[in-house]
């Protein structure tokens, strides 16, 4: 991995010249609008970067955006990668390694998720305070390279408490409905059955999705403080489970996105 990482970073440093990002941002399904707030310096297609996986989803742009947001130098992944696309866990988290090597000091992650908590409604936001990983494989499986991180990284605080507190305060002051809760990661791409939604709630989940946790594990392995936020695009309540479509999920994400963007922008400004 170190050789592949070196090749990717060398290519990007040549492309972005002396630009050194402080903050990395991963934009989830339907949540690419934050890019509009960035004063863009450079834009690089995933497909042009050596060893970089390519997003196979038509609604994920697949490019790295370098620029300034709220006075901070940022790099945003406009389009993330998922395990269900057929990539290994190491492949989908490779971009986090690249961003770390480029110099980021914080990682901000967004996603679209389904609500498991009856008090959390469609269109609300949820700051992730912890997670349950039900995906089949860890991105850290295999030989560990101590240059990247420790063999057994601590996960007692995967999401930075100070950033969570700041994010909740920003939401409260802006009168934005924003909860905090536990995110359950599943492999997908199928959505859950009634019995599965019930099970996920019983084990302590407040929201369920198909991403985020692999990136967070690798960020912790690399020593990066993490802030993660979900837009709740659907409701997985077994007693009244309704069919829903990708179009509905994207529509809900687009409607809630300005609120998420406001929180992320102000939080990044406070760093």
Automatic annotation (TrEMBL):
Pathway: Purine metabolism; purine nucleoside salvage. GO terms for molecular function: purine-nucleoside phosphorylase activity. Its EC number is 2.4.2.1. Signal peptide: none annotated. It is an enzyme of class 2 (transferase). The keyword Transmembrane does not apply. Gene3D superfamilies: Nucleoside phosphorylase domain. Residues 23-268 form the Nucleoside phosphorylase domain. Keywords: Glycosyltransferase, Transferase. It holds the Pfam family PNP_UDP_1. The purine nucleoside phosphorylases catalyze the phosphorolytic breakdown of the N-glycosidic bond in the beta-(deoxy)ribonucleoside molecules, with the formation of the corresponding free purine bases and pentose-1-phosphate. Belongs to the PNP/MTAP phosphorylase family. Homotrimer. This is Purine nucleoside phosphorylase. The lineage of its organism: Bacteria, Pseudomonadati, Bacteroidota, Sphingobacteriia, Sphingobacteriales.
């Amino acid at each position: 991995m170190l050789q592949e990482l070196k090749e990717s970073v060398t290519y990007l440093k040549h492309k972005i010249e002396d630009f050194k990002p402080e903050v990395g941002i991963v934009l989830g399904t339907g949540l690419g609008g934050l890019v509009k707030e960035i004063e863009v310096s450079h834009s690089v297609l995933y497909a042009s970067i050596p060893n970089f996986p390519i997003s196979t989803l038509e609604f994920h742009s697949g490019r790295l955006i370098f620029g300034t947001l709220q006075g901070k130098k940022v790099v945003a992944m406009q389009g993330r990668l998922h395990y269900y696309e057929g990539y290994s866990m190491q492949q989908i988290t490779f971009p986090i390694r690249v961003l770390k090597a480029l110099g980021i000091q914080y990682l901000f992650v967004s996603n679209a998720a389904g609500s498991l908590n009856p008090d959390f409604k469609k269109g609300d936001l949820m700051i992730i305070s912890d997670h349950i990983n039900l995906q089949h494989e860890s991105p850290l499986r295999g030989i560990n390279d101590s240059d990247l991180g420790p063999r057994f990284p601590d996960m007692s605080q995967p999401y930075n408490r100070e950033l969570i507190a700041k994010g909740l305060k920003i939401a409260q002051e802006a009168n934005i409905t924003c909860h905090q809760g536990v995110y359950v990661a599943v492999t997908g791409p199928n959505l859950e059955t009634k019995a599965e939604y019930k099970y996920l709630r019983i084990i302590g989940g407040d929201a369920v999705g198909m991403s985020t946790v692999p990136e967070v594990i690798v960020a912790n392995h690399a020593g990066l403080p993490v802030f993660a936020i979900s837009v709740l695009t659907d409701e997985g309540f077994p007693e009244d489970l309704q069919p829903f479509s990708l179009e509905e999920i994207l529509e809900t994400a687009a409607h809630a996105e300005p609120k998420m963007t406001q929180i992320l922008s102000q939080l990044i400004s406070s760093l």
